[in-house]
UniProtKB/TrEMBL annotation:
This is G protein-coupled receptor 68. Residues 330-353 have a biased composition (Basic and acidic residues). Belongs to the G-protein coupled receptor 1 family. Gene3D superfamilies: Rhodopsin 7-helix transmembrane proteins (1.20.1070.10). Residues 40-288 form the G-protein coupled receptors family 1 profile domain. It holds the Pfam family 7tm_1. The gene is GPR68. Residues 354-363 have a biased composition (Polar residues).
Length: 363
């Protein structure tokens, strides 16, 4: 408790920062991730279970990836309340540490399993017979245990430090320190090199060789090539968009953030990059559509149904518009005919009255 109080009252955390981005952009993104990510990941977990049941080692990696996303999604209501209360944490420090670990470690668990998916596809397509023992259910379970164990040990490092601080408005700030503390520099360099740079190098190496093999293969069907291409592009996009900006800014902060002046300058762009990592929980289920042939066929069938549905609606709307135009034209035509007949009748009446007047004058 004394450590917690000392941490809260530490003068090094009294940077005056504009947290407006937390009250405007963050709630919108968090609500979108909750509303889309939760059902999408539940469905993805079901498809992953089917693959595990079919003894497909790829399903093990995808299930673990989904579990990591769901754990993060379950922490979002707490973060949503936090940002809506102007960055004031109303729960205890243990809950702050748990939510903080789920927020940050989900990034590296997701990166680890995305990397496993790419290496598994590399071994399956480039070396289908040479490393068959690495593509078994047992090997997948061992690798998954190593990834979770590594991240749990990293999380323990955070649990040994107090995560509460106090801003000039007397708000209890959770899992944020401005300027950055000394112990954060080493963990940030480790995150960048071991948690991001190495995996993305392995991913790019795997997919470059996959592209070469698929391009040269004469027996691979066109649909299969398209499926592999979509899997590669979706994985690379998740890495580049969701994780790239955050890790670049983590290194920049570690190198240059020495005082509150730099912290205030980089605050908005850093937190925007952190917000991009949340989209990972929405993007990951897309991999299920391309990682397995049966799931890919279901996805293409669903896509075709959606296209047909909207095409039919468009055609129906167009037909309705044409009928309405024709009806309007017919109505206008009838109106013109009635008007013409009325004018002709009035003209005849005028001529008759003129003749009668002329006859009366002659008499």
């Amino acid at each position: 408790m004394a450590n917690e109080t000392a941490e809260i009252e530490s003068p090094s955390t009294n940077c005056t920062l504009d947290h407006a981005i937390h009250q405007t952009l963050f709630p919108v993104v968090y609500i979108i991730v909750l509303s889309i990510g939760l059902p999408a990941n539940c469905l993805a977990l079901y498809y992953g279970y089917l693959q595990v049941k079919a003894k497909n080692e790829l399903g093990v990696y995808l299930c673990n990836l989904t579990v990591a996303d769901l754990l993060y999604i379950f922490s979002l209501p707490f973060w949503l309340q936090y940002v809506l209360q102007h960055d004031n944490w109303t729960y205890n420090e243990l809950m702050c540490r748990i939510c903080g670990v789920l927020l940050y470690e989900n990034i590296y668990i997701s990166i680890g399993f995305l990397c496993c998916v790419s290496i598994d596809r590399y071994l399956a397509l480039v070396h289908p017979f040479r490393f068959h023992q690495l593509r078994t259910m047992k090997a997948a379970l061992v690798v998954s245990s190593i990834i979770w164990g590594k991240e749990i040990l990293t999380s323990y490092f955070f649990f040994t430090h107090g995560e509460f601080s106090k801003d000039p408005d007397s708000h209890i700030v959770c899992f944020e320190h401005y300027p950055m503390k000394d112990w954060e520099h080493s963990i940030n360099y480790y995150r960048f090199f071991a948690g991001f740079l190495l995996p993305i190098c392995l991913l790019l190496f795997s997919y470059c060789h996959i592209f070469k093999v698929v391009r040269k293969s004469q027996g691979t069907q066109t649909k299969k090539k398209v499926q592999i291409k979509h899997l590669v592009l979706s994985t690379v996009l998740i890495f580049v968009i969701c994780f790239g900006p955050y890790h670049v800014l983590v290194v920049i902060r570690s190198l240059f953030e020495k005082d509150c002046v730099f912290a205030s300058r980089i605050f908005n762009i850093y937190h925007f990059s952190l917000l991009l990592t949340s989209l990972n929980s929405v993007a990951d289920p897309v991999l299920y559509c391309f990682a397995n042939e049966h799931t890919y066929k279901d996805f293409m069938r669903f896509k075709g149904s959606c296209v047909s549905f909207f095409s039919c609606r468009k055609a129906t709307n167009l037909s309705y518009e044409l009928k309405r135009v024709e009806a309007t034209s017919e109505e206008n035509g009838r109106s013109r005919n009635v008007s013409s007949k009325r004018e002709a009748s009035e003209l005849c009446e005028h001529k008759v009255s003129a003749n009668e007047s002329s006859g009366n004058g002659t008499e």
